[in-house]
Write a structure and sequence with these properties.
Layout: E1 6-7, E2 11-15, H1 21-28, H2 31-34, H3 45-60, E3 65-71, E4 77-87, E5 92-99, H4 108-123, E6 128-134, H5 138-146, E7 150-161, E8 164-174, H6 175-186
Parallel strand pairs: 5-6
Antiparallel strand pairs: 1-2, 2-3, 3-4, 4-5, 6-8, 7-8
Helix pairs in contact: 1-3
């Protein structure tokens, strides 16, 4: 598996390198971003460099794949989208994403997720994409439902952030469901 950059109408999804560390830090040091991300807010740029190293390691070991989200018109790094818990043998992964708050409500996350789902199902041949989200993260829950993800249940006290346990909701999308939604979309009646 080689790192494949992806493209949408407004975005480039690229491999993240150390030269993106300050931009990544700027995003992940904001409590409003990490509140629902499952990690503590970063406190040093070096933390972002270590995170980038972990993205690279996960990719090399075929356990994950993380793209930087870049605006085509300005070249600005505005977030990440990617796969955690990747298992090519079992044809599954978990999707995750975060966007700088300055770019919220512009549908950039939806645009990036749509392309990553296409890549996962149509090129990687995955069968299942899951997502974990905090119960209070209404925006993420709505985004997942928009793409046909179904809520499977709750994992009690699954995430421990800021010295507090939090339940996580589990969502999933199966390749056959994705294919049906793509077919409906090509007929003009859906969102994929």
């Amino acid at each position: 598996m080689w790192f494949k950059e992806l493209e949408t109408e407004r975005l480039r999804l690229i491999e993240i390198g150390h030269h993106h560390a300050e931009s990544l830090f700027e995003i992940l040091s904001k409590d409003e971003v990490t509140k629902y991300d499952g990690i503590e807010s970063l406190t040093r740029v070096e933390d972002a460099r270590r995170l980038i190293d972990s993205f690279k390691s996960a990719y090399i070991n075929k356990r994950g794949l993380r793209w930087g989200v870049i605006l085509k018109d300005s070249g600005k790094f505005i977030g990440t989208v990617g796969l955690n818990q990747l298992s090519l043998a079992n044809k599954r992964a978990e999707i995750g994403y975060e966007i700088h708050p300055e770019y919220w409500r512009n549908h950039f996350t939806s645009e990036a997720v749509k392309e990553v789902l296409r890549y996962c199902f149509e090129e990687l041949g995955l069968n299942r994409i899951a997502a974990l989200t905090f119960k209070d993260n209404i925006a993420s829950r709505n985004l997942l439902k928009k793409f046909g993800f179904k809520e499977e249940g709750s994992l009690r006290s699954y995430l421990f952030i800021r010295d507090q346990p939090h339940d996580a909701l589990v969502f999933s999308l199966i390749s056959t469901e994705y294919s049906q939604l793509r077919q409906q979309s090509s007929q003009g009646s859906n969102r994929l």
